[in-house]
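Just scan my protein:

. . .
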Amino acid sequence: MDIKQQQQQLSLAKSSRQRCNEWIFRDVPSDITIEVSGGTFALHKFPLVSRSGRIRKLIAEHRDSDISRVELLNLPGGAESFELAAKFCYGINFEITSANVGQLCCASDYLEMTEEFSKDNLGSRAEEYIDSIVCKNLEVCVEVLQQCENLLPLADELKIVSRCIDAIASKACAEQIASSFSRLEYSSSGRLHMNRQAKCEGDWWIEDLSVLRIDLYQRVMMAMKCRGVRPESIGASLMNYAQKELTKTKVDSGSNVVETIVSLLPVEKLAVPINFLFGLLRSAVMLDCSVGSRLDLERRIGSQLDIAALDDLLIPSFRHAGDTLFDVDTVHRILVNFSQQDDSEDDMDDASVFESDSPHSPSQTALYKVAKLVDNYLAEIAPDANLKLSKFMVIAETLPAHARTVHDGLYRAIDIYLKAHQNLSDSDKKKLSKLIDFQKLSQEAGAHAAQNERLPLQSIVQVLYFEQLRLRNNLSCSYADEEQKPVHHSWRISSGALSAAMSPRDNYASLRRENRELKLELARLRMRLNDLEKEHVCMKRDMEKSHSRKFMTSFSRKIGKLSFFGHTSSRGSSSPSKHSYRTDSKVIERTCASTD
């Protein structure tokens, strides 16, 4: 008991003693003095022993010495509750209310004011009030629970707390059911349905419960869960309670509040907003809560990370000076939880991702959103001078390779990191650049990367190679619009989305096969371009020498020879000669060797 509580009890004892002088018998001298919590009461033995079994026993034990002074140690409620009990012994009327019924129950148990010693005693009167008044009203139950905070553990042993908690849970559940029925309505077709837009009036108790101490609040929430109260209502109550308590509590009690709220979070997703989970996680990190609570929050956040915002991930680092500005380790664990959760979903339903190459499956959509979120996060933390390369790379590499269809965001983040950390060695720059698939850069990002002096020379060469490949591929599309195979290859090469949407176990083999096809196509493209230039010269010469039908005949014959990817029509075309086939093979071999 602290000094403030002691002073408060002394003040109550003094005021009780003053009031005692007003109602006590003045014409009969006092024959016993009762001391309670620093206060003294000059009373009479007969009224007390007629109702209180404890006082009767104390006087009986000292009958020979004619005891005149009794000290009651640790009486629940102190002098204030004893004054009410003494009034009851003297037959003086007073009102039992929600503010004193808890004290009366505990005091009557301590003083043994039961039916065994007197009929219709104080204990039975207080019990009757709890059953008939308190348990019928939710707000009154909350008031009694507040009074019981200072009466534990006796109030718990007398089942005052448990009866109030059960009453609150049942009342909240009943209110919710009634509110649900009130929102039922018939549609135009005559079918009964729930009006989701109507305001739910069954959660008015949320504000009332916010006044309870954390241990009692925890028990109320657990009882509500068992009764079947909606997870959304539980989540709303937790949010309201956390907002009030965490703004006024100290560090020690604050950590207990956070850990308790985390343990009470509903298991259902979206029962609480993700920004509330991030707020709890920030508080848990700042207050140094238990590892289990933080890991639980990280797991919950990871399961719905695709709906998070960039500001949510920017968790300040509360460690020693010289550390990173933001808590990168916590974000990494959240990403690992997201990836593991994604893998577990894939294992349960492989057809959703692995066997179906559709990029629109739910898990793939979540991957795209998280990949974009991670790239923005990397760009935000990249300027931090204390951010080590290993931490930057581990965040970038956490997601699987097929999560990013476009690498513009990752390239931007890496470029910012290179600009802020100019003392990186060439080997470290190469490590960073290997994270980027330059084939998945947009035209604008590719043009920027081709002139970026911060990138290693090898990376710039790769960018130039893929830019040239894209240009040649676009050129091939303009000459072969009606041929399906070239169009299919060009879309796959230029966008990179098809291979990105494939499953991870097939992606590597597909990329190798696609790389070989690209090399062959590039070799054929160079050879055909040379042929095209030669035929163009011949056509100009024929146009100068020939006229009309003769020119058109020659033009048709030469066009038939210029099938861009080696395909010939069913009529009017001739096969390439053996000499040209050997020439093609040599050109292909030289081109593949140079690209390797």
Notes: Confidence is low (pLDDT under 50) at residues 343-362, 484-501, 558-596. The chain has 28 helices and five strands. The beta strands are 32-36, 39-43, 69-72, 184-186, 192-194.
